[in-house]
Amino acid sequence: MSTTIEPGKIFNVPEPTGTDVARAETTAAQAQIDAPTNSTARMTERNAETMQGAAEEAALMARSLGKETTGEPPSAGEQLRSKSETAIAHGKADIVKAMDEMQEYLGQAKRLPGNALEAVEPQIEKVSSYVGGVEGQTDTSKYKVHDLQNID
User: Fold this and answer.
1) Where is this chain compositionally biased, Polar residues type (predicted)?
2) 6 CB burial (10 A radius; 0-12, 13-18, 19+)
């Protein structure tokens, strides 16, 4: 009788590898080991397989609803698209704000000649009365600026 244990084996039975390791380390696997009878262990295994199938189906459903549902972080492309969309939205808001300000300035520019006319109208009346004071004189081109400065 040989007492040598081969490497990679426990009691000459191959050690689990890959997905079998993960399967052997689960709570269900521990429950199978602790089961009082073989039929209970098999029932535990079937229940674990059913639960695993349900979990996989739920994961597929979550993936179909999008990354927000799965908690998966967005890809670099999605992050870039999100930042681009945010920048575009800010740009549009800036354009609307600039257009509103431009309309306000345009309104001020339209009112400016009327305001200027209102400001000089009294002076125009004084000049007209001065020119009208000279008999038959209506042409103000003969008067120089210094002549008009003394008008009160």
Assistant:
1) 27-42
2) exposed
97 φ, ψ to 5°? -65, -45
Report whether 143 contacts 149 (CB < 8 A): no
Give this prediction's pTM.
0.35
DSSP character at residue 72: P
- Among 34-43, 114-123, 125-134, the range scoring the smallest mean pLDDT is 125-134
Claim to verify: residue 64 and residue 101 sit in the same structural domain:
no
Contacts of 143 (CB under 8 A, 6+ apart): 131
Q: Which of 48, 78, 83 is nearest to 66 (CA)?
A: 78
The rounded Cα 106 to chain-centroid distance in angstroms is 33
